[in-house]
Amino acid sequence: MKKDGFYFLRVYPLVFMLIVTLICISIVTGLHLSTKSRVDANENLFLRTTVLQAADVAVPEDFREVNTLFESIVSEEDSFYKVSRADGSISFVVPTEGAGLWGLIKLMVGFDEELEELTGIGIFAQNETPGLGARIEEEWYRTQFSGKQGPFVLVDEGAGDSPDEIDAITGATRTSRAMLSILNDVFVSGPAVVRGE
Amino acid sequence: MANSKLKKTFLTPLGKDNPVFVQVLGICSTLAVTNKLENTVVMTLGVMFTTMLSSFTLSLIRKHIPARIRMMVETMIIATFVIIVDIVLKAYLPDIWKQLGPYVGLIITNCIIMGRAEAFALNNKPGLSLIDGLASGMGYAYVLLIIAFIRELLGTGSIWGIQVLGDWWTNWTIMIMPPGAFFMLAIFIWVVRESFMKEKKED
Fold it and tell me: A125 lies in which domain range?
């Protein structure tokens, strides 16, 4: 093979790149397909966990129990979930989303039987700053919403007592405000969705 | 002879030619993923895996890669290994995958990996390139882990998510944010260069 010929300079690089690309694509595709069912199961499990969190139901550690529990107490309606809780009451969980600081925040919001107060929230997807805004996923933040009634106002972290006050996260003002506006919106739109309006 | 070259290949990236505090490469991820120790460990393992195997693979085919398209081939192979890491994390460690977000994919553009491929793997045997890749990854890893340890401790008062400092501790919010990493990295480079690398300056 001539080192400066047409074949060496033009054809060989093309063929080489094509072969490398094909090999790489096959590896990645194979791996993607072989783990797809597992990835889907993870996603589904995560979705179910957030629904249970929003309904203020204790989520079991073991994932098989999460699935069994979910299937026994949750019924999926058109655009919301109906959760029968252990004490006999019902919680309606509505999925919603809104703009956060860095990207979309997707969450589940739970309402009580009369659609007058919240039972909790579950964060499904968020891209907030790790350690600051991302703390909306932490338990203390999620569980503060039980029994709250809108329209809401923000107060300092740890200061929210009355039903309309929600804790902000120190150092994550913009994420806190984003959550406030999402929750104020859903407090009006959520019950309407459940009533089928 | 062969043994001493092996030793040198392994030790240089850990010390006097460290990719982070000497070459100052891979800074983007140093700033982005060092605010929680757990994320940092997964991230550095991903980088180690990628540098090691991409250097090895490129070294294997180094005599066949046409010089004009070598960067395309390098990027393609590096990207393949990174996507393997991404898919494995997504399937088996979904929680950490969610937290690392786009940074796993960004390993592809980590200059350390490309740098090792260009500077070492294309001119050396596969076995030696593997060692070089591993050592470069480790050199990157331990610096990040030290920074992550300090940032998580000062920023949240906890280590590995477990609270270790009491109520008296006020969290340094800046440590969690990217600027905190700038300060930490600069201080780290300064301390290391002042105390361990002095003789180099006098040359």
Answer: 50-195
Examine residue A167 and state whether it is found in any structural domain, yes or no.
yes
| Interface test mutation site (partner B, options A7, A14, A23, A39, max chain B beta carbons within 10 A) | A39
Terminal C-alpha separation, chain B: 27
Tokens of B42: 């997964």
CA distance A56 to B124: 59
Closest CA to B158 of B175, B143, B144, B141: B175
Residue A179 domain flag:
yes
For chain B, what are the domain ranges?
9-197
Q: What is the pLDDT of residues B67-92, one digit of tens each?
A: 889 999 999 999 999 999 999 999 99
Interface test with A, best of B39, B58, B80 (most A CBs within 10 A): B80
Set of chain B residues whose Cβ sits within 8 Å of the Cβ of A37: none
What whole-number distance in Å separates Cα of residue A17 and Cα of residue A139? 50
Question: Å from A35 to nearest chain B CA?
Answer: 6
A183-194 confidence digits (pLDDT tens): 999 999 988 888
- The answer to whether B60 faces chain A, any CB pair under 8 Å, is no
> Is the interface score ipTM higher than 0.85?
no
